[in-house]
Specification:
The protein contains 15 helices and 21 strands. With 494 residues, the protein is α+β, with helices and mostly antiparallel strands. The strands form 5 sheets. A 7-stranded mixed sheet has the order 5-4-14-15-16-13-17. A 6-stranded mixed sheet has the order 7-2-1-11-20-19. A 3-stranded antiparallel sheet has the order 8-9-10, with no helix packed on it. It is 35% helix and 19% strand.
């Protein structure tokens, strides 16, 4: 079997590295085609905790990875000015407290807070938030009874260095890299036979992986997959991106600050800070957006801002015949919750699960891949839309528009359940767990009308005792952690 990956970058080399680990040289020949003439987007520097398990599966040593990609650790994402100007909350990679008597902790907190009396803030009951605010980091505890086991972590790294790291890994495992630019695709309605390069070479294959970026050279250009445009819900369609010098401490979290027609990211790496301004051209002009980014960047610019254009949405089919789209060729959701690399990882995992037998593609496997990936994209879409619609801001036309959106029915149902009785409904499939939804609900001012009746039946004093105990445990555990920079220094020295 011959597998051809078209395109490099993060998506291409994550795919090639996984194929190198799993099938290259044994079950298949794997070829990756990329051109030095074609740049990559290369701004996906923040991740979610799932990336740790991707690296671990490939046998990648964490300390080596941290050194080579200039990575920092990430305990969550801080959101500023989203619910209203002046607000700040953190979406943590971990829990708020823990279940008590089989009931969610946040119901006890709501019961205690409704009675008044100086109850700790909900954020004070989340260890990763307390640690992040104090710029502290330690690995989670293996003891599931300890408060130190109630969180996870991700990374913030240089995406171009990560792609290069995975390239070395893949090439050491029988993946062949071909330098060249694809100029023609030989295909019929459901199958690709080969691609032709600019120098006339023809590369044939049994299975093609489209990692060609926004263009979707194979999945759209040759096979016309179609595209579901989600800009009515997520109207941001452009971004300025630029690096700057690092200033201040290396924070173990990413920051997303709401702006007049979009939002700005800040991602601290060891050697620089990644910055960007995502915005809607319907509500601001390109040069004003650029000026707003430059006015709010910390540290000296290391390069001129680069403009990216996109349309939020996904391909209607991400697997057609013998072609699978992975990464930006499959769809794009703005990087508000650092989901781009995770969606790549999901697609790779699903491809391995449904891997063709002897090069023969089963239509049932194709249908299952398309169903599962479509649902994952929709779940992420709903979570992103929640950040925009759960706001009281009305200071600009953009925010007034977002407040009045007609929401996806799946999101309306989830929000109504929480508003009514504090239930954080959990999807059967979808990457974001209840603590993530709770962080945004609470952080942006959505409050349940009532708490669980079994919690309400207990005294407010009992609820306050539970909350105080959790808050104290989080404080003590965070205080015992080293500073983020000290942990990084020890890891790099090791």
């Amino acid at each position: 079997m011959r597998i051809v990956v078209v395109g490099g970058g993060t998506a291409g080399w994550m795919t090639a590295a996984t194929l190198g680990w799993s099938v290259a040289g044994r079950l298949a020949d794997v070829v990756l085609i990329e051109s030095e003439e074609i740049g990559t987007v290369g701004v996906g520097e923040a991740t979610v905790p799932h990336i740790r398990f991707f690296n671990k599966r490939l046998g990648i040593d964490e300390a080596d990875f941290i050194r080579r990609t200039h990575a920092t650790f990430k305990l969550g994402i801080e959101f500023r000015d989203w619910g209203r100007i002046g607000d700040s909350y953190i979406h943590p990679f971990g829990d708020f407290g823990h279940d008590i008597n089989g009931l969610p902790f946040h119901h006890y907190w709501l019961h205690a807070a409704s009675a008044g009396g100086g109850v700790p803030a909900l954020e004070e009951c989340s260890l990763p938030i307390i640690a992040a605010r104090a710029n502290r980091f330690a690995l989670p505890s293996d003891d599931q009874r300890a408060i130190g086991s109630t969180f996870s972590y991700a990374y913030q790294f240089d995406a171009s260095l990560y792609a290069a790291y995975l390239r070395r890994y893949a090439e050491a495992r029988a993946v062949e890299r071909v330098e060249g630019r694809v100029v023609r695709v030989e295909a019929d309605a459901e199958r690709i036979a080969a691609v032709e390069l600019a120098d006339g070479r023809r590369v044939n294959g049994d299975l093609f992986i489209d990692c060609s970026g926004f263009r979707g050279l194979l999945i759209e250009g040759a096979l016309a997959a179609g595209y579901d445009d989600w800009s009515p819900w997520l109207p941001c369609d452009a971004a300025w991106a630029m690096p700057s010098e690092s200033v201040g401490p290396l924070t173990p979290y990413t920051r997303a600050t709401a702006r007049e027609a979009g939002w700005q990211w800040r991602i601290p790496l060891q050697h620089r800070t990644g910055n960007g301004h995502v915005f809607s051209t319907r509500f601001t002009d390109i040069e004003r957006a650029r000026a707003l980014l430059l006015a709010n960047v910390e540290g000296e610019m290391l390069a001129d801002p680069r403009l990216l254009r996109f349309h939020t949405g996904r391909r209607r089919r991400q697997w057609i015949g013998n072609c699978v789209a992975i990464g930006l060729s499959a769809g794009f959701l703005e990087p508000l919750e650092s989901t781009s690399i995770h969606l790549i990882q999901l697609a790779i995992g699903k491809l391995l699960e449904l891997f063709p037998t002897n090069g023969i593609v089963d239509p049932a496997d194709v249908a299952e891949f398309n169903r599962a990936m479509a649902l994952e994209y929709e779940r992420v879409r709903d979570f992103l839309v929640l950040h925009y619609c759960a706001t009281t801001r009305d200071d600009t036309p953009f925010w007034r528009h977002m407040r009045a959106l007609e929401l996806p029915p799946s999101l309306v149902e989830k929000m109504d359940e929480f508003r009514d009785c504090g239930i954080v409904a959990q999807y059967r499939e979808g990457m974001f767990l209840p603590a993530s939804w709770l962080a945004v609900y609470h952080g942006q001012g959505i409050t349940p009308a009532r708490v669980h009746p079994l919690v309400a039946d207990a005294s407010a004093a009992t609820a306050r005792g539970h909350v105080a105990a959790i808050a104290a445990a989080c404080r003590h555990a965070a205080a015992a952690m080293p500073l983020h920079e000290d942990h990084l220094a020890r890891l790099k020295a090791a």
